[in-house]
TrEMBL record:
Substrate binds at H128. This is NADP-dependent oxidoreductase domain-containing protein. It comes from the Eukaryota. The keyword Cell inner membrane does not apply. It holds the Pfam family Aldo_ket_red. The keyword RNA-binding does not apply. The record marks K86 as: Lowers pKa of active site Tyr. Keywords: Oxidoreductase. SUPFAM superfamilies: NAD(P)-linked oxidoreductase. It comes from Cutaneotrichosporon cavernicola. Residues 41-280 form the NADP-dependent oxidoreductase domain.
Length: 294
């Protein structure tokens, strides 16, 4: 993925980033956090029919089966859809077998009628949070590595991991770290570490959960007006040009489509610098952001 200003416009909805396994991950994904019932199924269907090819779910979202139904109803073959799920750790240190028994439930929820590879697989499996401690994280990671070795988790990674969490993990290196990222919460030390290590950075909350205060920020509004775009589109484009993989979320068909219409304009160096200047550090987060957990 080329982040240079002169070549950023070449990005398209078909663009991908290469993961450690060699798999190609689409550079934008559809998030389903808090999506329930028909909103989830229809949202996934609408996203895939609009052109998304990556869906981001999690065990803690309690909607993996709904996502699977949305994929099945979309008319898009499962083989063309990149699906991510996440395992949420508890507050005690488990055994590797206990973690593995939780992990294996996810592919069966997405495709219950064909629970074995290649259909019954996950393209990406993440640890959802770095809790409760270093010992537990090592156990969780070994269980994910086992899932990858068995072939039904093609790539493995983490979410909400800070630099100290990443540095203490046993091998292999994660393929992905999924963290909150937008102009007001840029987490630059984590991003730099990941980029130095070849860990792909996924950006959740890229449109700040449609917070009216953020979407009304004069800097962002001015840039949106300059390009004839909406502020959420500018924020998603900022993520893309930073080299991140944004995961916007909506259950409204019009907004689902709008969030994907970000490949016909380019933010120039002045735009990017103005958005970069909005960083508020940790206080700029709009969600649960446990990157400083022990």
């Amino acid at each position: 993925m080329d982040k240079a200003s002169g070549n950023a416009i070449r990005l398209s909805r078909e663009s991908t980033v290469r993961l450690r396994s060699g798999a190609a991950m689409p550079i934008i994904g559809y998030g389903v956090y808090q999506a329930r019932g028909d909103d989830c199924k229809n949202g996934v269907k609408a996203a895939l029919q609009s052109g998304y090819r990556q869906i981001d779910s999690a065990q803690a979202y309690h909607n993996e089966t709904l996502v699977g139904a949305g994929v099945a109803n979309s008319g898009v073959p499962r083989s063309q859809v990149f699906i991510t799920s996440k395992f949420m750790p508890g507050h005690t240190v488990p055994t590797e077998d206990e973690v593995f028994d939780h992990l294996v439930k996810s592919p069966r929820r997405f495709t219950p009628e064909t629970p074995r590879p290649p259909e019954g697989h996950l393209d990406l499996l993440l640890i959802h949070a770095p809790r409760p401690n270093e010992e537990a994280r090592a156990v969780h990671w070994k269980a994910l590595a086992r899932a990858q070795k068995e072939g039904w988790a093609r790539d493995i990674g983490v979410s909400n991991f800070g630099v100290k969490h990443l540095g203490a993990l046993p091998e292999p290196l994660p393929a992905v770290n999924q963290i909150e990222l937008h102009p007001w919460c840029q987490q630059r030390d984590i991003v730099q570490y990941c980029q130095d290590k070849g860990i792909v950075v996924q950006a959740y909350c890229p449109i700040v959960r449609a917070d009216p205060k953020r979407l009304g920020d004069p800097v962002a509004v001015k840039i949106a007006q300059k390009h004839g775009k909406e502020v959420p589109q500018v924020l998603i484009r900022w993520s893309l040009q930073k080299g991140y993989v944004p995961l916007p979320k909506s259950v409204t068909p019009e907004r689902i489509q709008s969030n994907l219409d970000v490949f016909d304009f380019e933010l120039d160096a002045e735009d990017m610098a103005a958005l970069d200047s909005l960083d508020e550090g940790a206080k700029g987060a709009c969600s649960w952001n446990p990157v400083d957990n022990p």
